[in-house]
Amino acid sequence: MELNEMMRFDREHIWHPYTSMIDPLPVYPVRSADGVYIELETGERLIDGMSSWWSVVHGYNNPVLNEAVKSQIDRMSHVMFGGLTHEPAVRLAERLVAMTPDGLDRVFYCDSGSVSVEVAIKMALQYMQAKGEASRTKLATVSGGYHGDTWHAMSVCDPDVGMHTLYDGRLPVQFFADRPGIPFGGEWDENDIASLRGVLEAHHSEIAALIIEPIVQGASGMWIYHPEYLRRARELCDEYGILMIADEVATGFGRTGRMFACEWAGITPDIMCLGKAITGGYMSFAAVMATGDVALTISSHEPHSFMHGPTFMGNPLACAVANASLELISQPHVLPRITEIDQRLREHLECLRGMSKVADLRILGAIAVVELTELVDMARMQKRCVEEGVWIRPFGKLFYVMPQYVITDEQLGTLCRAMVRILSEQ
Ligand SMILES: *Cc1c(COP(=O)(O)O)cnc(C)c1O
To answer: Rounded to the nearest whole angstrom, what is the distance from the C-alpha of residue 219 to the centroid of ligand 1?
Structure first.
């Protein structure tokens, strides 16, 4: 296809994420991607700083993941999961049960992170119904969260950054506590949990579950908070008989330097949402982990089943590539490498702290966030990144990277130096 024609058709007919059909932000055409490099149709090779939204962690075109998909595709791409099962799904469940915090030993497969949040919420509501606590129909959460773009997921996203104003009067109304205020590595202050305690104390009879992103609040603001908050939140949930849903769609599988961010606080949620990196970024897929208590309570009451079952549930191709991805992630060098990446990010980016345009610098695991004092000019900044040979997509006041786990020190240096250079000229 001729490039100009392709770009014209794209611009006139295709919606990209969160964009206008009248005046869209520019998009860059990609020819291929390999390892940490994204190659544009125009010839540039960019070092990937985004892991394609947290998902591609072992590199694009990874030979191990390619092989997993290819060998599965010759056996079967898909069969329905109603009344049938298969080895890729069972092996993956075995792995997930073994990897996730103790107690999470029931697995529900679904299509995407947002759907996993819907599934988790349905589990919590059905659980409360089964327990005879049908008045518990709402959710508690904290400000500054992001849980996806579907309906109930949207209702627990940050009320300001999210789409609450747009759908005011139609979205379900949930209970919001203040965002965790103490940063990761800061000194814990008991006052930080007061807002959540207040919300749960006042409304627990209406609340089925607390949903929260553990340690790192991602897409709504890239905020990294104190693990004690999570421990206290777990205690409060127990105290008030509320289920805890940990949304690890972004943080799961090593991103924060632990396999799951919940491990920083040593807690087990009742329900855990997993997505994004689960397939190494090969395809959309998610899993919801639940405790035996959640699964068995739901199943011992009318209608004795959990009422969800997507068409592509347990898709064999997705399970096969997820098995390969999780095997790679479980190799003993991977988590220590993420800790090294954390260290390198600090070495390269610490110099930004003094800059007048920089309000805050936050680093944990393979995540580095530069918060600026002013909104970024997205189109201009994006263009500068491409000129510097890196792929970074800033939003709001945030210029941030979450590189792949396979990035080398040299590539990471190039990525970080480009960030520093671009920020120096602001
Ligand atoms: C991305 C994300 C989701 C939504 O996942 P999709 O696959 O985009 O539907 C949900 N929760 C968190 C924490 C996320 O980062």
So the answer is: 8
